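User: I'm writing a tutorial on reading structure tokens. Could you give me a worked example: one chain, its sequence, then its tokens, then a sentence or two explaining what the tokens reveal?
Assistant: Sure. Here is the example chain.
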Amino acid sequence: MKATMTLDKEFKIGEIDDRIYGSFIEHLGRAVYGGIYEPDHPEADEQGFRQDVIELVKQLKVPLVRYPGGNFVSGYNWEDGVGPVAERPRRLDLAWRTTETNEIGTNEFMDWAKKVNAEVNMAVNLGTRGIDAARNLVEYCNHTSGSYWSDLRIKHGYKEPHKIKTWCLGNEMDGPWQIGHRTADEYGRIAAETAKAMKWVDPSIELVACGSSNRLMPTFAEWEATVLEHTYDHVEFISLHTYYGNRDEDLANYLAQSLDMDQFIYSVISIADYIKAKKRSKKTINLSFDEWNVWFHSNEADKKIEPWSVAPPQLEDIYTFEDALLVGSMLISLLKRADRVKIACLAQLVNVIAPIMTENGGQAWTQTIFYPYMHASVFGRGVALHALVSSPKYDSKDFTDVPYLDTVSVYNEESETVTIFAVNKHQTDVLSLDADVRSFEGYRVVEHIILEHDEVKATNQHNRTNVVPHNNGDAKVDGGKLEANLPKLSWNVIRLAK
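And here are its predicted structure tokens:
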């Protein structure tokens, strides 16, 4: 089986915003307590943050972390999480039916983000709160001094402002499960007015309006159009969320779901551009895909959790090798529209549907999906290239013309490197790739990394090195032609340098 590709440095999709490799920490399950924060752990630092987790997050080079939710934010009073810890209230979190201790709040999370070299994408509560709480939080975080909320931050021990650039206007407000669920008109109005007030406090911030919770929502498309009618002049981004799972054990169909993600992205771009035309605006709204991942393994276990417990194990999916392949394809989907997808957040980062897992008091370890995410983040900085690809295809239950080869390439002019990310979705055959790379004269293959496994259900739960990449790929360049064999069901990273 053979595929061909032509790569040219002039065929540019767009500059990749580093924030496309963002992630997400919500006050949910063991993401915070027992995940990033465990003061009694042998690896805890002076603030109680797990240093083993910090080191793994650093390996991922996560540039941006969305916080504190998620569904959690729609019932969250941010004031509960600042000031002396001993005086903070315990609250019932209605989103996940747990008890929130508020030991970790805004300032502590900003400290943790600095330790992992990440910016914070802060979400405001537009469920039970609104304009007043949001503008106060911006003042608390970003205003220098001389006002009530900025001086309170200084009193709390943070003289310098946090200077948070990116903010989410609520979360999944189209969802009936959301505290304070609203219609598109209701949300659009409150989001626009909140955005105006937040930017009056700090005109330098960028704002994300809530798009649909997924493409299957009955209000999808109409929701985006209505929300953007209200917010277009006040926001920079519209959000997208999607999760996939192989519930019916159909691998061919499961791996094709990245095509659904492609279609979701194209649709939202079209809606945003329709509103741009309707408003005769010169401004372009970009996309923030601020929740995406595989999520289905833990659904049954989560039904058995004792209500109102503190940091129970929730949404703790144990990922398989096949999940890593789909995550790789989803990363490719994001990069193929890097001209418009400027922010994305793998949901989530630690313990909760996450690439990093921890044992309370014990080890931190990496799941199968850690590797494609790490490879894309580390090697995928630069300009996304539009490759001309010819690949054999297949049909599945829900999709037609699914290419066996899923691929995108990234060119970094400064470091004189090219990285090809590729997934072979064929279940039995090696895919022989021939690529014309004459545009990159003098480039050679420096590494061909492969993630593969004979068992699609293999995990790293009991054997931490069961599903890990190797760099024994056979890619080579000769006379401007790249040749590589992509093993059956494999994630490949082919790195070229001048």
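What the tokens reveal: The radius of gyration is 22 Å. The chain has eleven helices and 25 strands.
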